[in-house]
Design goal:
The protein has 17 helices and twelve strands. The protein is an alpha/beta fold and 454 residues long. Strands 4-3-2-1-5-6 form a six-stranded mixed β-sheet. Helix 3 links the parallel strand 1 and strand 2.
Length: 454
C-alpha cells in the first residue's frame, strides 16, 4: 500500500501509481500548483459520497491531516454529503457503523445536505450539521427519484453525470459558497487512480465557473490520484482499517452501474434488495412507455438483465406494483426539428433561424409535450385506450420488442424515418400514473408550425 508520506516529496515530482494499469496523473489534474491552491484556503472540505473511495480518503485524512494540508485539529476542515434520496441500505449501514464513529471521535464537522425542491431557486436544505454525527439522513425534501418519476424519464446515459451535478454538486456548492463568504473553498474529491478522466472533466468545468465568477470559487484536489491508489488499493486500505468490504456508492437507478460497480456485483445487490430493483424496473417501464429509446442502459434494459439473472423476487414485486398502482393514459407529442448545418454555425454564430441553414439529416431540438388523458386502475386505463383506438380508427399496438413486459400504444402520427428530422409523432400510451403534464418552452408554436396543413 502506498504510504501517506508520498504527499511530502518535491511537489514537482509525480507519484508513481500502485496499480499497473494506470499512468501518472496529468499535470492539469494533480499539479503542484493545484495542491498549493487547495492548501492556501481557509475552508477545506471533503465531498463524501458514502462509498469506498471517499471513505478511503476520509480515513487517510483522519490518520494524518497535515499531510493533506489540513489543520491537525481539523478546525479548517469539514466533510459534506449531498443526499440523492436513493442509496443502497448496505452503504448507509456501513457509513453509520464504521465511518461516523470515527468522525465523532475526531470531532470533525459532518454536514448532510439535499435539494430543497425541484427548481434551483428552492435552494438547499441542511439535513444534519454536527461534530457528533450518529445517523445518515437518507433523503431530503426533493429526491432524484421524485424528479425521475414526475418526468417519466430515467437518468440520461448521454452527456455524463447530469443527475449527479443536479442532486450532488448543486447542493454542496450552494452550501459551501454560502459558508465561505466569498472566499475560495478547498474541495477534495475521492476519485481513485482509475478515474483521471473524471478529474480532468471536473477541472475543466471548474475553470469555466471561475472565469464566470471572476475569482477562484473552489480549489480542487484529488489526493487518491496523487497517491496513485487504484480501486484495489482503495478497497484494501478500507478493509485493513475497518475490517469490512465496502461497496462503491451509487444510486440503484444509475445508468453507469456497470462502471460504478461490476455488473455481476450490481445484479447481486439487486437480488439483496428486490424492492429497490422493482422501483427502478417500474421507472424504466414508465419511461419506455413514453419513449422507446428511454431504457436505463445504452441499448439494453434493466428488465432484460434482471430477467436473465432470474431475479424472480424483484420481477414479482415489479409486476405486483404494476397491477396494484393507478395507471394513466398519456398523450405524447414530439416535434423533431432539423439541426443547423456546420457551415451555418461558422457563418452565422450561435443563433440562426433561416430554414435554408437546416438539414433534415442532422438532429436539432426535440420539443416534447406530455398530457394525462385519463387515470384509473390498470384495467380501466387499458379499456379507455381500446375505446379511443376504436374512435380514432387506429389499432392498439402491444409491443414487447423494446420492453419485455409489453407496452400498449395508439399512434395518430408516425415518424416515417427515425433518422430524419423535421418530423413529428403523436401517440397515446398506458403506463403507471404520476407523470406531470409538461411541455417544453416553445412547444406550442413549433408543433403548430410543423403540423400546419396536415
Amino acid at each position: 500500500m502506498t504510504s501517506l508520506a508520498l504527499f511530502e516529496p518535491d511537489l514537482d515530482d509525480a507519484v508513481a501509481p500502485t496499480s499497473s494499469s494506470d499512468v501518472l496523473a496529468p499535470p492539469a489534474v494533480a499539479s503542484a500548483e493545484a495542491l498549493e491552491s487547495f492548501r492556501a484556503t481557509n475552508h477545506k472540505s471533503l465531498n463524501f459520497g458514502l462509498g469506498v473511495d471517499s471513505t478511503a480518503l476520509a480515513l487517510a485524512i483522519m490518520e494524518d491531516p497535515t499531510a493533506f494540508g489540513i489543520a491537525e485539529d481539523f478546525s479548517d476542515f469539514s466533510v459534506v454529503t449531498a443526499m440523492t434520496g436513493f442509496e443502497f441500505p448496505d452503504t448507509i449501514a456501513d457509513v453509520e457503523n464504521h465511518v461516523l464513529p470515527l468522525l465523532r471521535a475526531k470531532g470533525i464537522r459532518y454536514t448532510q445536505v439535499a435539494r430543497a425542491g425541484r427548481p434551483d431557486s428552492a435552494g438547499v436544505e441542511v439535513l444534519s450539521d454536527t461534530t457528533n454525527p450518529g445517523k445518515v439522513v437518507s433523503r431530503g425534501p426533493w429526491t432524484l427519484m421524485d424528479e425521475m418519476e414526475e418526468n417519466g424519464t430515467v437518468p440520461q446515459y448521454a452527456g455524463g453525470h447530469v443527475c449527479s451535478q443536479k442532486h450532488k454538486a448543486f447542493s454542496i456548492d450552494r452550501l459551501q459558497l454560502q459558508r465561505s463568504g466569498g472566499q475560495t473553498v478547498g474541495k477534495l474529491f475521492g476519485y481513485n487512480a482509475d478515474e483521471y478522466k473524471r478529474a480532468a472533466k471536473a477541472n475543466k468545468f471548474q475553470a469555466r465557473r471561475n472565469e464566470k465568477a471572476g475569482y477562484e470559487t473552489f480549489a480542487l484536489d484529488y489526493p487518491l490520484l496523487r497517491l496513485g491508489w487504484g480501486r484495489e488499493d482503495v478497497q484494501g486500505y478500507v478493509k485493513d482499517r475497518l475490517g469490512v468490504d465496502m461497496s462503491k456508492s451509487y444510486c440503484p437507478v444509475c445508468p453507469f452501474s456497470g462502471v460504478c460497480s461490476p455488473q455481476p456485483d450490481h445484479l447481486k445487490r439487486l437480488r439483496k434488495y428486490p424492492a429497490l430493483a422493482a422501483r427502478v424496473l417500474r421507472l424504466e417501464y414508465l419511461a419506455m412507455a413514453l419513449n422507446d429509446s428511454m431504457s436505463l442502459y445504452k441499448e439494453d434494459t434493466l428488465f432484460r438483465r434482471v430477467t436473465e439473472d432470474q431475479n424472480t423476487e424483484a420481477l414479482g414485486q415489479f409486476n405486483a406494483r404494476l397491477d396494484e398502482e393507478a395507471w394513466s393514459v398519456y398523450r405524447l407529442r414530439r416535434a423533431y426539428t432539423p439541426g443547423r448545418r456546420p457551415e451555418c454555425k461558422t457563418a452565422h454564430g450561435d443563433r440562426c433561424t433561416k430554414p435554408e441553414c437546416r438539414d433534415s439529416s442532422i438532429k436539432g431540438t426535440v420539443y416534447r409535450s406530455v398530457e394525462t388523458v385519463r387515470t384509473g386502475s390498470r384495467t380501466e386505463a387499458g379499456a379507455f385506450l381500446h375505446n379511443a383506438a376504436t374512435a380514432l380508427d387506429r389499432p392498439v399496438e402491444h409491443s414487447t420488442k423494446s420492453h419485455g413486459a409489453g407496452i400498449d400504444r395508439v399512434r395518430t402520427r408516425v415518424r416515417p424515418d427515425s433518422k430524419a428530422y423535421g418530423t413529428v409523432e403523436d401517440f397515446y400510451a398506458t403506463a403507471p400514473a404520476g407523470v406531470q403534464d409538461k411541455a417544453r418552452d416553445g412547444f406550442a408554436a413549433v408543433w403548430s408550425s410543423m403540423t400546419a396543413g396536415q
